[in-house]
Amino acid sequence: MTKNSARNLFFIGTFACMVIFFALSIHTMSTIPEFTHSENLTDDVVAGKKVWEKYDCIGCHTLIGEGSYYAPELKDVYSRKGPAFLRAFLKDPVKIWYGTAEAAAGWRKMPNFHLPEEEIDHLIAFFEWGDKIDTHNWPPRPQKGVAQATGSAATVGAITGEAAMDLQVQQGEALVQEKACTACHKIKGTGAPVGPDLTGVTKRLDVEIVRKRLRDPKSVNPDSIMPNFGFSDAEIEVIIAYLKTL
Fold first, then answer.
1. Domain ranges of the chain
2. Rounded to 5°, angle at Cα 98 from 242 and 48
3. pTM of the predicted model, to two decimals?
4. Interval 56-87: pLDDT, tens
5. Distance of alpha carbon 135 from alpha carbon 214, whole angstroms
6. Per-residue b/e over 193-217, b at no fewer than 16 CB within 10 Å?
7. Helices then strands (H, E): number in the chain?
8. Tally of CB atoms within 10 A around 89
9. CATH number for the domain running over 146-243
10. Tell me, which fold does domain 38-131 have in CATH?
11. Helix, strand or coil for residue 67?
């Protein structure tokens, strides 16, 4: 290769890369409104972003993968927990997560900022808007719980007898752990007393009521702050199998 051809290749390659870079940048910028639904940026959402910045929430949490990785990712917290749970949690994080300050001693915990109702409303509006951003499944979530520990709940049908019951119980326990149910419920003395104690719950309540609560908590109690986890019928059955052992 001659000096002239090498120089031409350099300039042509650099120019081509710049064109591709700018074309991709323009395409990205033009699709941002589509993915973020910027048309839904209400005054409450904007105010919620300011509350987020005011209390430096990103100093502990991540949002769409950006932040300190000390506390949970909050991109989809609205759909995972629901507005009622978020409101109760923001009012008193330690009470909702641990039950009492004594139970929280020595554990990682969110401080109580004593947020006024207006700021809580704004934060929830911000979380709701952020929940609907299309991030193409970013950040990735680790696959854990039932699928990792014991296989899919749907596989129970392929096993019969005592082995099937043991597998159901294992899967149910894994789901209960994955969804952090002890953040609100006690199980054999461990957990927070925000919701009912789950020890012996299938003996105190009709199983069909338990099943309805797991499918849609508000169908039993319209004021329930329990999130709707969207459990499948198979997942509900393995959770009930586990609860029957408590």
1. 1-36, 38-131, 146-243
2. 110
3. 0.60
4. 999 999 999 999 988 889 999 998 888 888 99
5. 29
6. ebbeebbebbeeeeeeebbebbbeb
7. 12, 4
8. 21
9. 1.10.760.10
10. Cytochrome Bc1 Complex; Chain D, domain 2 (1.10.760)
11. strand
Task: Output the CA torsion sign for 51, 74, 116, 223.
Answer: positive
Contact call for residues 48 and 57 (beta carbons, < 8 A):
no
Question: Cα–Cα–Cα angle for 171, 216, 240, nearest 5°?
Answer: 30
Q: Which amino acid is at 243?
A: L
Going from the C-alpha of 144 to that of each of 65, 70, 147, 246, the distances in angstroms are 19, 19, 6, 23
> What tokens appear for 151 in the block?
């296989």
Q: Which two tokens stand for residue 147?
A: 């699928």
* Sequence letter at residue 69: Y
Rounded Cα distance between 32 and 40, Å, is: 13
The secondary structure element, H or E, covering residue 242 is helix 233-243
Q: Token digits for 218?
A: 């508000």
Over residues 191-221, the pLDDT tens digits come to: 888 888 999 999 999 999 999 999 999 898 8
Helix or strand holding residue 165 (H, E): helix 161-178
DSSP state of 179: T
Q: Report angle CA 200, 188, 142 to the nearest 5 degrees.
A: 105
b/e 134-163 (16+ beta carbons within 10 angstroms → b): eeeeeeeeeeebbeeebbebeebeeeeeee
Q: What is the DSSP letter of 205?
A: S
